[in-house]
Specification:
The structure is a homodimer of 144-residue chains. With 144 residues, chain A is an alpha+beta fold. The first copy, chain A, has helices at residues 15-24, 53-60, 83-94, and strands at residues 7-12, 31-32, 39-42, 47-52, 73-78, 98-105, 111-116, 122-127. The two termini of chain A are 28 Å apart.
C-alpha cells in the first residue's frame, strides 16, 4: 500500500449545516453527486467530503458511529485499477487490520471495500473510474 | 481559511501496535519527537500522525474521545505565522464553529489552538516553526 491518502470524509448529522460551515470558511465545493448526497471539496492533492452519517451507517451495516473509535471519519486510499482493491485489502489484513466490508461494486459506480486499523479507524480502498488518480497519486474530484 | 489541510492525526490506544501496523503496510516513519510520543509519516503533501489517545485527552481536558463525534481523529490546518493561529480560530468561530482551546504556546515549541466544526470534528490550527509550509501550502515533517 503506497504511502499516501486520497480522501477524508467526515460523516455529519446535517449535511446542509456542515456544508454551510465550510463554505463560510471560504471553501468552494468541487462537485456533487446528482443526488446531492455528498458534498465534495478538492484540497491540496486530496479530496475532502461531507456525507450523511445515518446513510453511511446503513451502507456499512453498523450501529452508532459516534461511539466507535472512528467517530464517523473515513480515510480513503484510492487505487488505479479495480483489481487493486481486493489486493490492497488483503495487504491490510495481513498487516494486522480487520476486514470490514469486502471488495464489491458500489452504488456510485466504483468498486471498493473497507478495513479497520488496530484502533478501529476506518479506511476505504476504492477504485473510482470517474476521478482517476494522476501520475503522482494526487486526487481531485472530477466534475459529475 | 485557505482550502487545504496539513495533518491527519489518529489517536491510538497502543502506539507501538499502531506504528507496527502502518509499517507492515510498507509505510516509513519520517521523524519522531525526542520523547517518541508521536509517530509521523509524510504522505502526499500532508502529514499523517499516530498519537496516544490518553495523552491527547489530557492535553485537551476532555473525556472519552471514543464516544465523541470526532472519535479521536484530529485534522490540522497549519499556518505560516504565529499571529495567524488566533485569526484563523476567529474565522472558524464566525463561520459557526466552536472554540475548543484558545491559541497558546504549546509544549512542542509551536503555537496552536483547536476548534470543533458543527458536528464535533476537531481541527487544530497550528504554527509549527520546525516544519514550515512550502509556497503551495504543502506540508511535510522536518527531521527533529
Amino acid at each position: 500500500m503506497e504511502q499516501r491518502l486520497s480522501i477524508i470524509t467526515l460523516t455529519v448529522d446535517d449535511l446542509a449545516r456542515a456544508r454551510a460551515f465550510y463554505e463560510a470558511l471560504g471553501w468552494r465545493v468541487a462537485s456533487e453527486t446528482a443526488a446531492s448526497e455528498i458534498v465534495c471539496f478538492t484540497l491540496n492533492g486530496i479530496g475532502f467530503a461531507l456525507y450523511p452519517r445515518q446513510r453511511f451507517r446503513e451502507e456499512m451495516g453498523i450501529g452508532d458511529l459516534s461511539c466507535e473509535a472512528d467517530g464517523g471519519v473515513v480515510l480513503a486510499f484510492n487505487v488505479r485499477s479495480r483489481d487493486e482493491v481486493a489486493k490492497t485489502l488483503d495487504e491490510a489484513v495481513e498487516a494486522g487490520g480487520t476486514l470490514m466490508k469486502a471488495a464489491a461494486d458500489v452504488f456510485w459506480g466504483g468498486h471498493s471495500g473497507h478495513f479497520r486499523d488496530p484502533d478501529g479507524h476506518i479506511w476505504e480502498v476504492a477504485w473510482n473510474p470517474f476521478s482517476p488518480l494522476d501520475e503522482s497519486g494526487s486526487f481531485s474530484w472530477s466534475a459529475t
